[in-house]
Design brief:
heterodimer; A: 43 residues; mainly alpha; 72% helix; 0% strand; B: 500 residues; Sodium/glucose cotransporter
């Protein structure tokens, strides 16, 4: 019934999606920062 | 000090802070660009947190708690979709594109973007009319939410609650415009986060911790901790789409991207909006936990107000009340600016442009409909008109909310779906697909709106919310009609994407 951290599996997976969203946002921020440094101004 | 006095003291301080922000920002509002998009000078923190505050209205806090109470832990998926689709992906896919397009096309509004991107004044007017009508109705539901929570927690008569909160918002929006909206929303987002965290911690403590709450929920009904559990896949997936994908067509949220001072704002802003959006977990989880603390409630909408009274002292309750009001006020204020823009920048300008129309191709359509180009009206006049329009639109919502007719209550449940059905694909495909045509955009908007409304009139066949068929129809019609009609003129594409 319960998954990791004593959470129900469905709840754990939903929280994992939120954590993954934060990772995606961080990767996006890092990638756009790199491309801006390499490719010039963006404004 | 009595609990009523505590509530009143906290609220007076809170309202005074909002009015102060309105006065401060009003001094910086001189041009139409200031009034509608903050002069395109807003930074990442304010953009991101005002986006989140406008996203999560009091309806989400009280209603989200009610969903958590009814359906249990599967509602955490709603929060997950809010964060991933409604915040992170919306910022990544639409943020930079809308910022760039709005500058190239010289527009301050979503209808303005649609009109110029496709060279279709009809589409601009149509979307402005949909926004004008359904946003005013949407604001009625937001006001109602604030009135009910003031009544439930503070004992303030419903009418008094609506008049007080509505009047404060009208003053600071009319005076400070967009800057007042985003700065007050920035403050309100933090109040919401603090208030929701406070209630969640108190509720978990009262339930004996998260694990104990889960075990007690499972003992009541295993479906309350399973996914999709008692909700079922149909209900869960469709609700997730409504409250997350719907954001991609919501003008009051999309306009945040116009106001960024540079594309660099997106880097930090995307991370901040994602983190801020994660607060969506709190009302759903708290609502589910309320089920093991409170005796059975006939009306799940009372779960959060009742829980607040049960687990928080008067000071905590007052802070939570301020948080719920913050959610409602930030949404109401954001919508007022959008409705004002639809009246002053889209409908009025379109009327003027229509009268002076002298023929010509698609490219000249872009030039003719320019919001400021060729106008003899000074910006101060636009600001005055914007203030008058926001006051008028707010007063209409306020008066209707005092004694809403039954029809209005039905329509409010669909206003989000109708606006998204009209605007979502013309905006999303407008910044991602060059082949989209004027005919495709207009047909998509009409078909999406008609389908969402028709679904409402037919009382939701198959138990599916009107958002799903409305948005699906809008997408199909957009693609089919665009491919069946002549590609847009090179001039029009270059104006939107920039010359390659």
């Amino acid at each position: 019934m319960t998954g990791p951290l004593s959470l129900p599996w469905g709840t754990f997976a939903a929280l994992l999606v939120i954590a993954a969203s934060v990772v995606v946002a961080l990767v996006y921020a890092a990638a756009t920062g790199r491309s801006r440094r390499g490719g010039g101004a963006d404004e | 000090m009595s609990s009523t006095a505590v509530y009143a003291l906290v609220l007076v301080l809170y309202m005074a802070a909002l009015l102060g922000a309105g006065v401060w920002t009003g001094r910086r509002t001189r041009s139409a660009e200031d009034f509608y998009i903050g002069g395109r000078q807003v930074g990442p923190w304010v953009t991101a947190f005002s986006f989140v505050a406008a996203y999560f209205s009091s309806v989400v806090i009280v209603g989200g708690g009610a969903f958590g109470y009814r359906f249990g832990m599967s509602t955490m998926w709603v929060a997950a979709s809010n964060v991933l689709i409604g915040c992170t992906l919306a910022w990544i896919v639409l943020g930079k594109r809308l910022w760039e397009f709005s500058k190239r096309l010289d527009t301050m509004t979503i209808p303005g973007f649609i009109g110029r991107r496709y060279g279709a004044r009809e589409a601009e007017v149509f979307s402005a009319v949909v926004i004008f009508l359904f946003m005013i109705v949407y604001n009625v539901s937001v006001l109602q939410g604030m009135g009910r929570i003031l009544e439930g927690l503070m004992g303030l008569p419903y009418v008094h609650g609506i008049l007080i909160s509505g009047a404060i918002i009208l003053v600071y929006v009319a005076f400070g415009g967009y800057l007042a909206v985003v700065w007050t929303s920035f403050i309100q987002a933090w109040i919401m986060l603090f208030a929701l965290s406070l209630l969640a911690v108190a509720a978990l403590a009262a339930a004996g911790g998260f694990q104990a709450a889960g075990e007690r929920l499972a003992a009541m009904d295993p479906g309350l901790v399973a996914t999709p559990g008692v909700w079922g896949w149909q209900g869960l997936v469709s609700y997730c789409l409504i409250v997350s994908l719907g954001v991609w067509g919501m003008p009051q949220l999309l306009v945040r991207f116009y106001s960024m001072r540079s594309a660099r704002v997106l880097r930090l802003g995307t991370v901040l909006a994602t983190l801020g959006g994660a607060m969506a977990v709190l009302p759903y989880m708290t609502g589910a936990v309320a089920r093991v603390i409170l005796p059975p409630l006939e009306n799940p909408d009372l779960a959060i107000p009742t829980l607040t009274k049960t687990v928080l002292n008067p000071w905590g309750g007052a802070v939570f009340l301020a948080g719920v009001l913050a959610a409602g006020m930030s949404t109401f204020a954001s919508v007022l600016i959008i409705v004002s823009a639809a009246i002053v920048k889209d409908l009025r300008r379109s009327g003027e442009a229509g009268r002076s129309r002298a023929g010509g191709g698609a490219g000249s359509m872009v030039a003719r409909t320019s919001e400021d180009g060729g106008s003899t009206r000074g910006p101060s006049r636009d600001v005055l008109l914007g203030r008058a329009a926001s006051l008028g639109a707010g007063l209409v919502s306020l008066v209707v909310a005092l004694r809403p007719p039954a029809l209005i209550l039905v329509v409010t449940a669909f206003s989000w779906a109708v606006i998204a059905s009209a605007c979502l694909w013309p905006v999303v495909l407008g910044v991602t697909w060059r082949r989209g045509t004027r005919q495709g955009a207009l047909a998509s908007m009409v078909a999406g709106t008609a389908t969402a409304l028709g679904w409402m009139i037919a009382k939701m066949p198959l138990g599916i919310h009107g958002f799903i068929p409305g948005v699906a129809m809008s997408l199909i019609v957009f693609v089919v009609v665009s491919l069946a009609t002549k590609p847009p003129a090179r001039e029009l594409v270059d104006a939107a994407w920039g010359r390659s």
